[in-house]
Amino acid sequence: MLDDLNSAKIITMEASNRVLERKAAIELEVLLANGASFKKVKKDELIFEEGTHCLYYFQLVEGRVRWVNINEQGKEFIQNIIEPGECFGELPLFDNEPYAASCFADKDSIILRLPKESFLSILKENSELHFKFTKMFAERMRYKFLILKTIASENPTARISVLLNHLKKRNCKGRDKTEIQLTRQQIANMTGLRVETVIRAIKKLDNNENLSIENGKIFIS
């Protein structure tokens, strides 16, 4: 028991350091004080499945997870890529409906799980945090509107630009430039394009002053 407690403390300290550059949706200390628990997940491990009932609030501590819909042919459409400090799977917490998409670990990861009722109690007691989640919903909804607009225009370059600008806004705070740590296939799965189309469009965007390709890696500034 003592070893388990010590391990949890070590994980908490390390996790706090990892999310310094990205402010956590909810501070780790608050989550832990209200009954949250750490869970390690392996790459491609299912965290929750589309259509199932929601029991927890999830927040990523380390690694990366992808939020996806899978069609009958097994092809993924990536709704969102979640980075450390961000929450995911939050829709059913508010509307009591089943999960609208499945979630998988994109790499070996550590997540925090907080029982749904405990999460709702935190929001009821903290109006500032409640507003923070409202703002997050608005930002994610705005991105979806922009993506749907480019899908209607059938312009693949515009569709990818919307995605990259969204990632730039989310990840470039305080930095001159940042690497887009997504494969061309993942970009295709996030925009509904063929990977060949993504490759051609990114080559065109390479002339953009805010995007550069270095050793095959995409950077935005």
Structure description:
It is a single chain. The chain has helices at residues 2-18, 28-33, 91-95, 116-125, 127-153, 156-171, 184-191, 195-205, and strands at residues 37-41, 46-48, 56-62, 65-70, 76-82, 87-88, 102-105, 109-115, 178-180, 211-214, 217-220. It is an alpha+beta fold. It has two domains: 2-125, Jelly Rolls (Sandwich), CATH 2.60.120.10; 136-220, Orthogonal Bundle (Arc Repressor Mutant, subunit A). A four-stranded antiparallel β-sheet has the order 1-8-3-6. The protein has a four-stranded antiparallel β-sheet with strand order 2-7-4-5. Strands 9-11-10 form a three-stranded antiparallel β-sheet. It is globular. Mean pLDDT is 84; it is low at 1-6.
Number of strands: 11
* Count of folded domains: 2
- Give the CA-CA distance, first to last residue: 47 Å
Please state the overall shape, judged from the principal axes of the Cα atoms. Answer: globular
Return the structural class: alpha+beta
CATH fold-level name of the largest domain: Jelly Rolls
Task: Give me some keywords for this one.
alpha+beta; 221 residues; Arc Repressor Mutant, subunit A; single chain; 8 helices; 4-stranded antiparallel β-sheet; disordered N terminus; Jelly Rolls; 11 strands
How are the elements arranged and paired?
Blueprint: H1 2-18, H2 28-33, E1 37-41, E2 46-48, E3 56-62, E4 65-70, E5 76-82, E6 87-88, H3 91-95, E7 102-105, E8 109-115, H4 116-125, H5 127-153, H6 156-171, E9 178-180, H7 184-191, H8 195-205, E10 211-214, E11 217-220
Antiparallel strand pairs: 1-8, 2-7, 3-6, 3-8, 4-5, 4-7, 9-11, 10-11
Helix pairs in contact: 4-5, 5-6, 6-8, 7-8
